[in-house]
User: Fold these one by one.
Assistant:
Number 1:
Amino acid sequence: MPAWSIHQGDALAWSIHQGDALALLPAVPAGSVGLVLADPPYNSGGRTGAERAVQSARDKYVSGDARHDLADFAGDNRDQRSFGYWLTLVLGQGLCLARPGASCLVFCDWRQTAITSDALQAAGWTWRGIIPWRKPISRPQRDGFRRECEYILWGSYGVPIRHDTPIYLPGLVEGSQPRGRARRHITQKPVEVLRQLVRVCPEGGTVLDPFAGAGSSGVAALLEGRDFIGVEITEHYAAIARERLAATERTLERNVEAARC
């Protein structure tokens, strides 16, 4: 297992670890995590097993606005039952690392909402609700309804943490995927959406993302004053995540220095 090196800035710590979440998560100290923020491969979009087997993630999720090649990623071809069992294992491991009262937020689309809810609850999290994520730039459906929402399922480890200063978070978040050169990952989530989500973790607490992708959740965590641990199986994306978090750390340090002057 690779060493779990931590980058420690003036106030915040972060780390990105390349490998399979189920193999690497047991090395995280138990009871150290204030939020598990998971954006797993949706394993969605194929009508049959054969379609799922031949469609790559790029085939399913990349539109023409990317303007540059985006690396594919593995793990997006499971059938629904194997997806549910696998996600239960990952979220169960996350519960083992969480402090009492911690939250778990899991992204999914409309096809996988039911099985993702089952996995969250089977893993031991207390079911709390669903936060719609509205995407203003989204695909129209001929003769039907625009698919402009994905969903974030919320669970907690018992009674949710009471913050020292009460917080009131939105029941719906809104933001479009980055476009053009700003898009670094096939299924990249907007930092402005993720920043709202990580606020459920107490200030100074640790956000864990077992599917870190290009590191957007880590960027959001650092910007909101939280530590971050990310695991990403694809080497290409793990490298991008490290690059982006290091850049965010440098920006925050410059801001601190400027405030001291």
Note: The radius of gyration is 18 Å.
Number 2:
Amino acid sequence: MRGLSGSSARLAALLFVAIFVPTLAMLGFMSYASAQTLASQRATLVTELRDELVAEYDGGGPGSLTGAIRDRLRYNPLGEEVLSYRSAKGAVLVGNLGTWPAGLGSRSHWLTIRLQRPGDRQSRPVVLLETVLPDHSTLLTGHVASGSAELNAANQWAFLLALLVAGPVSLGLAFVLLRVIERRVARIALIAERVGEGDLSPRVELGQGDDAFARLGRGFNAMLDKIEALVLELRLVTDGLAHDLRSPVTRLQSVIERAAARQVDPEAGAALETAQQEAASLQAMLTTAIQISRAEAGIGRDRFAPAELATVLDDLVEIYGPLAEESGFTIAAEAPPGLVLPVHRELLGQALGNLIENALRYAEGGSRIALGAAREDGEVAIVVADDGPGIAAGQRHEALRRFGRLDPSRHAAGSGLGLSLVEAAARLHGGRIELEDARPGLLVRVILPDGGKAPASPR
């Protein structure tokens, strides 16, 4: 059994207390109630005995009462009944007690004391009731509480045994309830994790009841239905943007190119060339923004295919090698053979290409760019590192933000979408990116699940 987290341990303790404390209270009440019931029954016997003898006194006076007591004690003087009758002067007239118990007062309720009658081997608990009669004589009636000590001991042992059983049972029930709750929460958490990876198809299974988990499941499913509808709408919008906006920008580029070809004025030609560059930048920015939106919507997982990362990195070195050499950089890749992952090769290549272009553009004073891939603790890390100035730790969050620019004046080239595309591509593959200090320079780690733990395509 896996260990309990802090919150799970607290919940288990709470469930244990909620089960064990009422059980303990019930056992204690049952033990107390049984003892009280037995004591009440004995008190009733004593009261009935007193009433019967008082009736003898009322009918025939002290003589009749004395005779009735003798008749009761004649055949069983050491029986369960305890009787004694004394005159108003304090002389014991009849009874099975040798002496009048000291410390008794006139009482209208019963009490229990220990007495030893003549002939008894030891003192025994007796329920007594003292009654003062009209002639100031006193009648003492009682009943031996036979078996009280044995019953109390049995009750104590039964209570202890029940306590020993109730403790483990309560603990077991607490863990069973905890596991039931954890399993139901874990199923919802698993669905939430898959949704976070972009798979909007799973839903919470709903039972027939209307408990809190059923209501949570219905609300969760309704939320997923809404998200799925919004994502579908986003796909339609992005596809429309790809068709409706690319074409005008492409036509604009063509018009500028034709105008530049016919222009003989050097100043006008320079202006048209600048306009053409800006149009190309706009086209690239639009394309990148659409790619990010599509990746975040989970579009493109149907194009995943196994690819050897060493080959992917070598292709990037071959493509960017001449440009790196012109910019004064060396570029090299190192990855173990046989490291194969199912990836969207075109998107992953473009994302890594963005990292290389960023290094060429911003790693001023640097001289090398290193690419690499390796397995790390059940994941695969693809690394792009340079030896330029890097990015300060406090600015890395801004660098990952869409359209985030580290140059407040925004005079530097770039759209602010390069790292956003890398992050979107990593998430499409079920991974993430991390920015670290290469000492010197920037080290970008694209971390993907090993073995192709990529989410399933949305339905």
Note: The chain has nine helices and twelve strands.
Number 3:
Amino acid sequence: MRRKNEDHEYAENSDPNTIPTEVIQSMVDNYRSNQLACINETLQIDDAHSIWFDMVTLKKFISDIEIEAHQVDPHVSEEDLGIRLYYAAYPETTEEPVPEDYARRHTLIMVPTKKQDDLNYDFNPFESDCETDTETALALAAGIGREALAQNHGILVPPGNGTVESY
């Protein structure tokens, strides 16, 4: 059976990706017992162990990646685009729109990637000066005053309510 949504047509007999719940629980427990415990003990904080993003935000970010990537390279294929998730931490002193209780907590920052020569490079389409300048866009170097296509600001737990979590 062919699965569809309004934006994409999936391959014949394409089933959704699944992971057994026991594996999910084991991996979450492993993280909490090792990495999270070490972070909490070393930094003396109650660090976030999950982050939630609403579907609209995720879909918009994916759409932004596709639109901006095609502005830089009109021939880029969907298979050549991706998203890298960086582990990050909020600074000790937060500024709007970041809540104060997010200070020093773990978060994720998503950045687009583009495949070139079988490697998935961080990709910032805003670094390109013209449609043919993909080399500059692939060089996602940090710099003062520069903007990068990226996504953050999900809902952290803690400090958010953990009663909604299954794992």
Note: The chain has three helices and seven strands.
Number 4:
Amino acid sequence: MKNAMSTPCGAVRRTATALTLLAAAAMLVACGGGDKKGATQVAAKVNKEEISVHQINFVLQRQPGLKPEQAPAATKAVLEGLIDQELAIQEAQEQKIDRDPKVVMAIEAAKREILARAYADKLADTVSKPTDDEIAAYYKDKPALFAQRRVYTLHEFSIEAAGDAAKNVTALVQAAKSSDELSKQLTAASVKFASRVVTQPAENLPLAMIDRIGSLAEGQSLAIPSANGISAVFVAAAKPQPVTAEQAKPAIEQFLLNDRKRKLVADEMKRLRGSAKISYEGQFAAAAAANTTAAAASQ
């Protein structure tokens, strides 16, 4: 949250830097020669194949940390890397490696992944940004994250217990006045456990736990059922470090926007599944039927 709460100007500066870098790189390559070939956007030829400025720029776009003054060196490095790549591709084709079934499947899998991701990205781009009222409402609804934000020192326990033993352990956690007392009681009862002390701000806690831990005072504890037994948390210290609405606004806006995108993509995939004819075959047919029956029974 700390980085996410920084001023929105940071995103503007990063975008401007990236655009400046790309412009500088394009000029360096396109203006490398005085003849007409400089305007063809060809950066190099490897045997009969061409490497274009657009290929270089595409790679540079995936290196957002570069500064404008690094453009000449970065452009040259990218071009040399593309030349090496092209040489390897040509040799692979010469040896007919591109026809290897495993390679063909890998290429097809990469193509499918790229297309599916591009569709999801295009869909997500249609989402509108949250309004100021929505941002303000989220800030007000999450005091433990913002107005009443604290940095916690927590003593965490992972306790092995099942059935009645889990109930007994929960009772021990609730009755213990300190983490040391709980450790002694668990040891005396021959209960296996692991513990650690961590210091972290509210935003680093699991989202579902923020409000529950936020309601605890120093010295209080919480017992939560887990896959292997019981997870216990003692609040050893809680230092107030509130965040103002203005400071939190960029992070809240980004969170709400990302959440909105995620939901839109999930809903669209659900719609597509509902309108598509999908049949499971072979060994997958029985499992699919069982899942359908279980889903119907749970409704």
Note: The two ends are 38 Å apart (CA to CA).
